[in-house]
Structures are given as structure tokens and as C-alpha cells.
Amino acid sequence: MPDQPRPRVLSGIQPTADSFHFGNYLGALRQWVDLQDEFEPFFFIADLHALTVEHDPKKLAERTRVAAAQLIAAGIDPERSAIFVQSHLPEHAELAWVLNSLTGFGEARRMTQFKDKSAKGGEGAASVALFSYPILQAADILLYRPQYVPVGEDQRQHLELTRDLAQRFNHRYKKTFRLPEPYILKETAKIVDLQDPTRKMSKSASSPAGIVDLLDDPKVTAKKIRSAVTDSDTVVAFDEEKKPGVSNLLTIYSTLTDRTVEDLVAAYDGKGYGDFKGDLADVVVEFVTPFRDRTHELLADGDELDAVLRRGAEKARAVASRTLADVYDRVGFLKA
Ligand code: ATP
Ligand code: LTN
Is 277 a catalytic residue? Predict the structure, then answer.
């Protein structure tokens, strides 16, 4: 019997910083790695999305490479997964244009990420690209007709918009898109800032002390964990409402060691936060040290990394170009 084609998974990550952080890893990348076994995976670096806020053109290419190296170091296997760069496939921007025509202005305006990201400088200063960011994201997804999109909680609203647009297109023209499902793990859906546990850990919004970068010097990382904000209590317990700082650390500890939160709470019964944070700092250092070494090793062979991205783009193009051809046909364009 020939193998059944596996359903697809797809996700993207922006090259907006010099390193990914623990929110990215636990909220998204870990799931990408696990899903490779059962699904046909497409993972990409969202460099078009990186233009929606101010960016440094001198850094973008290198950050894109570093992002690809980190995906591989995290366990994405280029033999099994297509790893590619969004701007290498014009189909993403092309489908986004068609989807722009299906999106209501008010509908786009309701996206909370736009509200958050434009709040600082005011709406007038935000780019139109930032406004249409979720529509490009919908195009990224729908081109590949995936079953699941593994992301953190902050992306849920964008996934809902994606499903709405897919349904609208299917209804208005002809059934073309599969409705993708978000794949969001409750436990790690939102890793919070170490210094301000009311906010998510974020590349663009966190202070250096609040964010644990995977490529930081492990000594710096250990220090950040030991100085994480907890509370005036001394009991290690899980309560996201009353003890968001400690609960966040418990989540990180539990996912990195595969020990349950209950087990950890029992193990630290009667011990203070000092012991708990010290041990977690050791666990984190043990995780980031080989990750960082492997990333640097991969970056040392730039040609091989570029070849991985070229092969990934070829695999992606085979799927994306067919979907786009269907779309162009269905909206009524004259064939080229
Ligand atoms: P930015 O702050 O520039 O918007 P980001 O840190 O949110 O960036 P992205 O590239 O936008 O990073 O996100 C990549 C993936 O990581 C997404 O799936 C996102 O949901 C997930 N993610 C980001 N931050 C967190 C977090 N604090 N907790 C859980 N998942 C997260
Ligand atoms: N907006 C996402 C990055 C992203 C993405 C995608 C995620 C761009 N396109 C398609 C999943 C599917 C973010 O993580 N901030």
C-alpha cells in the first residue's frame, strides 16, 4: 500500500531580534519539533512581516540566517521539514493582495496586535503593512492548506481571521482552502516577562532583564532567572492569578525537565525561592549551552545553511504555486 499523504503543519517566526527567546521556544518551536513525526511540516522565517515595524536593513539578512540556524538547533530536521524564507516565495505577497480584497477595514481594525503595536507611536505613525499584517499571515497559512498551525496564545485572533477569510473565499468563489486549526498548548501558551509577569515575554516589548534569549551568554541567563520577580510569599506553588512569576518559572522548569508541576511543587515544599530559582538556573543553563553551541556551529557553514533554505523554498514553491494558480483562476484573472 502506498503511504497516505500526511496532513500538513505550518508555522512562521519573525527575524526581528538577534535571538529567539523562551516564549518562542516553549510557546511554539517545541511543538514544531514534535509535530514533525506525524505531519508534513512547513516552517518559515517571516521576513516580510519584519518590515511591518522599523527594522535595520543591515541586520535583516543575518538575523534571517541566525533564525534558520536556531530552528535546526532546536530540532527541526531539514530532511523532514521544509525550512524556508518567506520573501523567497512571491506567492505569499501575491495571495495576501487577493485576501486584502476580501477583508473588511473594520475587521482588520479589530485585531488587538495592531492596537498594541501602534499604541506607542500612535495610529497615524503605524505603517499600512502593520495594519494588514494578519492578512499576510492568513496568506502564509492558506497557501499550504495545513491542518494545524502551532503558535502561542497571542496568535489566536489571527488564526480566527484566517479561518474567516478562507471560508469567505470558499463561499464566494469555490472551495479552495482548508480551514486550519490553531495548535496551542495550554501550559506554555503564554510565557510571561521575568520582570513584569503581567506581560508576555516579547522580542520587541520586554526589557533585557525580562527576556531570556536562547543565544545569550549562559551566565547572563542564569543571573536573569535568579533575579526573576516572584512575590513576597516564600511558598513554591502554582497559581497564575496570585503568583504569576513563580507559576511562570514552574512552567519553564516543568517543560525543560519533563517533571510535572505537582512533582516540582512537592520537591520544593519547605524550601525557599532561592533554592528553587538556583536549581532552575542550572536547568536552563544545561539547556541553552548545547543549543547555543549548535547554532554557532551551523552558522559557521553558511553555504550549507543557504542550501537548506533553497531546498526548503523549492518544496514550499511546489505547493504554494499550485494554490495560487487555483486562486488566480477562481477570482477570474486572464491567464498569463
Ligand atoms: P515581537 O515581540 O517582535 O512581536 P515575538 O517575541 O512575539 O515578537 P514572534 O516571532 O512574533 O515573536 O513569535 C513567534 C512564535 O512565538 C509565535 O508562535 C508566538 O505565538 C510565539 N510566542 C511569542 N512570544 C511568546 C510568549 N511569551 N509565550 C508563548 N509563545 C510566544
Ligand atoms: N505572526 C506570527 C508569525 C507568523 C506566522 C505566520 C505564524 C507569520 N506568518 C503564519 C503562523 C503562521 C507571530 O508569531 N507573531
Answer: no
